[in-house]
Amino acid sequence: MSWLRIPLAIVGGYLIGSISTAYWVARWGAGIDIREHGDGNAGTVNVSKVLGLKAGLVVAVVDLSKGLVAYAVARWMGLNLWVAYAAGFAAIVGHIAPFYLGFRGGQGAATATGLLLYSLGQCLWRGWLPLGDLAFLAWVVAVFGWISLKGEVIACAVLPLLAAELILRLPANPVTRVAALLALFLLGVSLTNLFHRKVLVLRREVREGIKWGRFGLRPAAMAFPAAEQWLGSRTGVGLVTAVTLAALAGDALRLARRSVASAAWSRIRVILKDKEAHRFSSISLFLLACTITLVVFPLPIAWLALLYLIFGDMCGKFFGLQYGRHPFFHKTVEGTLACFAACTIVSFWVAPAVGVPFAVAVAGAFGATAAEALPLGVDDNLSMSLVSGATMYGLLYL
Q: Which of 25, 28, 91, 280 is in Cβ range 3.0-4.6 Å of 17 for a Cys bridge?
């Protein structure tokens, strides 16, 4: 009966996926259980590390194709796209949990990647995915690949962008929706490897150079332009001005009176840097930049300038401290490139939404990066948004 084809396709997909190539290549080629060696994962990377590149290539080719084979078999059986993709997902489950190995297999990344590449190929062939957008994603891969030399870091940078592209910009259909799910699944695998498998080990410079509390609070500054956007200019400017004046007043009081400064420093040194003991903090300068930016520039430009200040500076600082190899003035080439990449990602997504031409937004991104990297004698928390905002304003209105 025709309805039996659906469970048969899904069970067949699971069985295809449960062929643990890594396990059998290691067992037949070296007489070992690959799950007891290396990082314990029955996958391509671990086989390559333990048994060499040739064995890893064999595993990669087979594992990449398993989901596609399950998909193709379901289509050959006359089933629709949703069921065919369900068979492909069943192959991923089989790869992760093969029944004859105690349900302990690989992570499913290679099988999911094969299905994702096929789906992206379908999007390109049908004209849904613009080549310019694909080129931009490839540029992000290249930049973060050179900076970090870590596949998981590359994945964490590009996969959220790819998923957003598939969900927000491409037509809604089984191909794009499944591709988005696959991208998010691979993002989850990459995050697991970064933190639980300790692929990412923070350098001492990162642990000592970043105050994580204030670092994590920087995106909260998006509330200022959002308040102006949805509640009016008076509310937005009033909110950022009030917060800024409170921060400046606290710094001024701390610096003006030694007794107050000593007591205050003992309480707030956890969020301030040692060099800020005798000067206005970067927090106050950051808030001052937010205020000036919102007062001086039109809201579309202010949105971009503040997002450059928030995310460009965050990426520049983290990647510079974690992966910096080439000094560049008082920064590193890696950190500067990460800052520019973050700003251009903001340009790619936000500029069309706020009505700023992409070329103008990229020029602003370049201005923000220059202010962050060059020794201008001004704290970059103050200069980034002002330089980028002035650059964009000049190109648009002067």
A: 91
Mean pLDDT over 141-155 rounds to 93
Alpha-helical regions (H) of 218-312: 223-231, 233-256, 258-268, 282-296, 299-307
Q: Which of these, 4, 60, 53, 59, lies nearest to 28 by C-alpha position?
A: 59
Same domain, 153 and 217: no
Residue 121 lies in a domain: no
Residue 88 φ/ψ, nearest 5 degrees: -65, -40
pLDDT single digits (tens) 342-383: 999 999 999 999 999 999 999 999 999 999 998 887 889 999
Range of the domain at 363: 206-397
> 328 - beta bridge partners?
331
Same domain? For 135 and 250 the reply is no
Q: For the whole model, what pTM was predicted?
A: 0.88
Residue 177 tokens, joined: 């929706």
Q: What is the pLDDT of residues 74-97, one digit of tens each?
A: 999 999 999 999 999 999 999 999
Q: How many domains does the chain have?
A: 3
3-state secondary structure of 249: helix
Of 149, 177, 201, which residue is a domain's last? 201
- Clarify whether residues 385 and 291 are in a common domain: yes
| CA–CA gap between residue 27 and residue 370 (Å, rounded) | 54
> In this structure, is residue 307 part of a structural domain?
yes
Residue-averaged pLDDT of the chain: 89
Residue 171 to residue 322: CA distance in whole angstroms: 38
Q: Mean pLDDT across the stretch 154-159?
A: 94
Domain shared by 315 and 378, yes or no: yes
pLDDT at position 277 is 61
Q: Are residues 214 and 315 in the same domain?
A: yes
CB under 8 A, 24+ apart: contacts of 210-216: 210/317, 210/318, 210/321, 211/270, 211/271, 211/272, 211/273, 213/270, 213/271, 214/271, 214/283, 215/314, 215/317
Residues 190 and 290 in one domain: no
Residue type, 356: V
Look up tokens 């000067």; give the residue: 279
Are residues 166 and 64 part of one domain?
no
pLDDT tens, 265-306?
A: 445 555 566 565 667 788 889 999 999 999 999 999 999 999
Domain boundary among 154, 177, 201: 201
| Whether residues 383 and 239 fall in one domain | yes
Residue 395 tokens read as 């190109």
